[in-house]
Amino acid sequence: MLDSLPNKLNPSPVAHFRDTSTPHYHAGEISLLNSVDCVIFGFYGTELHVLLHRFPYAPFKGFWALLGGFVHLEESIDDAARNTVERLTGLDNVYMEQVYTFGAVYRVPTERVITTCYYALIEVEPTLVKLSNDYGATWHPISKVGQLDLVYDHLLMFEKALEQLRRKVRYQPIGFELLPDKFTMLELRNLYESILERSLDKRNFSKKILNMSLLQKLKEKQKGTSRRGAYYFRFEEKRYQELAAKGFLFEI
Amino acid sequence: MLDSLPNKLNPSPVAHFRDTSTPHYHAGEISLLNSVDCVIFGFYGTELHVLLHRFPYAPFKGFWALLGGFVHLEESIDDAARNTVERLTGLDNVYMEQVYTFGAVYRVPTERVITTCYYALIEVEPTLVKLSNDYGATWHPISKVGQLDLVYDHLLMFEKALEQLRRKVRYQPIGFELLPDKFTMLELRNLYESILERSLDKRNFSKKILNMSLLQKLKEKQKGTSRRGAYYFRFEEKRYQELAAKGFLFEI
DNA sequence: ACAAAAGTGTTCGTTCTACACCCATGC
DNA sequence: GCATGGGTGTAGAACGAACACTTTTGT
Question: Structure pTM?
Answer without folding.
Answer: 0.93
